[in-house]
User: Fold these one by one.
Assistant:
Number 1:
Amino acid sequence: MTHSATDAIDACPANLPGPRNPWLAYAALYRDPLGYLTRAARKHGDVVHIKIGRKSDFLLNHPDLVRAALLDHENLRRCVHRPLRRVLGKGLLTCRGERHKKQRALLQPMFTRERIVALGDVMVGEITRRTDRWREGATLDMAPEMLELAISIAGKALFDVDFSSKAAGLRDALVTVLQATRFNNLAVASKQFEKLSLPIHRRFARAAEKLETEIRAIIAERQKGASEGPDLLSIMVRLQKQSRKGLTEQKIRDQILTFLMVGHETTATALMWTWYLLSENPEVATKLYSEVDHVLGDRLPSGQDCDRLPYTRMVFAESMRLYPPVWLLTRRAVGDVKINGFVIRSGSYVHLSPFVMHRDPRYFPEPERFDPERWTPEAVAARPKFSYFPFGGGSLQCIGEGFGWMQGVLTIATLARRWQMRLVPGHRIELGPHITLRSRYGMPMKLERRR
Ligand code: HEM
C-alpha cells in the first residue's frame, strides 16, 4: 500500500508503517542496502519506520518530506561516516552550525557562475591532456580512468596544482580511504573493531598518512611561493598571511582535503555511469553526437558552451537520476522534530535516498528506462522539485554543484567529439554502494574513434 505525504501528516510514529521484524530489516539493509530501501519504500510508502528498542530509523520517500528534512538543518544534522570524519577534520562537509555558516560564506564566492565558466578551459585542458594517450581499440576501465581525470581537474581548477604525475598515487590513497566508507564496512566504521588493528586499518592509516603528507607539502609550497591566483588554495593562503578569518594551517588542510575528497569521486562516478548508459543506449548516443558535432564542429568546448549543449546536459541529468553518485543522505535528530505533523524523536536517524526517489514511478514513469527527454524544461516543471536531489538541498546543499555540472557536460562533450565507448561484452554490472554509487566490478570499455 502506498501512503501519500498527507497520510503521514496525521500519523504518530507508533502508527507509521514499517517492517514487522526490524532485525530482519536491518540484516537486509546491511546485505543489500539499495535493494532493501527500494523494496521498503514500495511496500510501506512515503514513510518507513524501523524501530528496535529506543533506536528509530526513518526513510522518507516523498518530495515534500525530503524538502522538510533537508531544510531543517538545525534539528537534523548531517551524519558523515566516522573514518571519513576523522580524516577530513573540520572542513565544510564535517563542521556544523555557526562554523559551517562562516566557512560557507568564505568559500561561496569561489563558486560563482562567472568563476566556474572561467574554469571551463582549465577543465578541457586537463581532459585533453589525460585522454591524448587513448588509443583506438584499447580497453580501459572507466572507473579508475574517470577518477584520475577528476583528481587532475580538481587539482588544477580548485588549487592550481598539477596532480597529473601524482594522480594514480593520490587516487590509490583516496580510494583506500573512501573504501572504508563502504556502506556496510563495519570493520573500519566501528570504534570497537579499530582496536584489533586489522590489515584494513593499517592500509587505511597508511593511505591517510600519504594524503596528509601530500596536502601539507602542497600548502607549504604555496606559502613559500606565489599565491596571487584566484584558486581556493591561494585565496586561503593569502588570508592566512594577512591573519584574516582566523585561518590556520590546519583549517586550510581540512578544507583542501575535503574539496579534493568530495570534489572528485562524485563527478567521476557520474561520468562512469554516463559512458555505460550511452554504450547501452546507442540511439541516445547518436543524438548526443549530433548535438556535439553541430555545436562544436572541429573545435574544443569552453565554459561558454555549457549552455549551448542542452541535450548533453539532459544526458548527464538522466544519468544522475538512475545512478545518483550520493545515493543516501543521513541525518540525526538532535531534538524532537516535527516533520509534516509527525514527530521524529531526538536521537533518531532520518534517511533520504536519491536512488529510491529517482526511481519512483510516480515521478519517473518506467523508471528503469534511460530517457534524457525527461529533462526538457516542460517535463522538469511538471515534477515536484525534490523528486530529484542528486546535490541535496537547503543550507548543506552541494557547494560544488555548478562545478560538477560544468565538469560533467564538458567531459562528455570533449570525449564524445572523438570517442565512442563500448562496454566489454558480457561484463557483469553490479552496484557498489560505497559513499558514492560505484560499479562493483569496474567498467571496462573498448575505445573506438568516431569517424
Ligand atoms: C556530480 C557531482 C556531485 C554530486 C552528485 C555531489 C553531491 C553532493 C551532495 C548530495 C551533497 C550534500 C550532502 C548532504 O546533504 O549530506 C554535497 C555536498 C558537498 N559537495 Fe558535492 N557533489 C558533486 C560535486 C562536487 C564538487 C565538484 C565539489 C567541489 C568542487 C563538491 C563539494 C561539496 C562540498 C564541499 C559539500 C559540503 C557542502 C556544505 O555542507 O556546505 N561537490 N555534494
Number 2:
Amino acid sequence: MKKFLLVTDLDNTLVGDDLALAKLNQCLIQHREQYNTQIVYATGRSLTLYHELATEKSLLAPDALITSVGTEIYLEGSKTPDQAWSDKLSSNWNLEQIIAITNHFADLVPQPESEQGAFKASYFLTPESAKSTLPQLKQQLQAQGLEAKLIYSSSQDLDILPTQADKGMAMTFLRQNWQIEPTCTVACGDSGNDLALFQSGLECGIIVGNAQPELLQWHYMNPNSNRYLAIAHCAGGILEGLEHFDFL
Ligand SMILES: [Mg+2]
C-alpha cells in the first residue's frame, strides 16, 4: 500500500452505482488518512453542474476539480479557476472566431449557457450528423487558421477546446505540480472525453465495465498493459482496477 493520485471521471464512472460508490469512498477515506492519497475529479460538467451532482450524491471533497472537459481547474474548493492553467490555455485561442464558424452548421445545437466557457464551446450533435459535420468543421477551422480540438462524447456532446486542453493535459499539469510519478497515478473513465486520460499510457488506467463504445474501440485498437478494463460497472470497476494495480 502506498500513496497514489486518483483522477476519475464522474458520470457513469465514479457515479452510477450508489452501493459501490459508498464502498469505494470508505476505502479512499482510509487511504487518505493513512497515505495522504489525493483525489481529483475530472468531469465534462461545469462547476455549476458539478455542484448539482455533489448535492445529489455522496462525493468526497476532492483535492482538485478538473471541470468542463479539462478547461478549468479548481484547487481545494476554490471558486475561481486556477490562473496558471487558464494562462496556459489562452494562447492561440479565439472563441469568437470559432463560434462564428459553428454558427454556419445547423445541426450543431448549442448546449445551455452554463456549459459554455472561456475555453469551451459545447454543442449537441447526433451521431448521424457527426459523421459529416465533424470533418467539415475541422476543415473550416483549419482553413481559417484556428487551432482547436474537437472532442465528441457519448454520441451526443461536441466540445471545442484549445489544443492545450483536455482532461489528460489537466491531469498532467496537476500531477507535475504535485510531483507525483505517473506510476503512482490512476486515471478512470467511461467515455470519449476520458480518452485523453489514457492517451499518454504512462499513468495506470481503469476503464469501467460499462464504458461507451467509442472508448472501448480505442482501447482495443491501442493496447497498453498499463490500462485495465474492469468487469464491474462504475465505482465497482474502479475498486476492481485499484486492486488489480495493487493500490488497495
Ligand atoms: Mg463519464
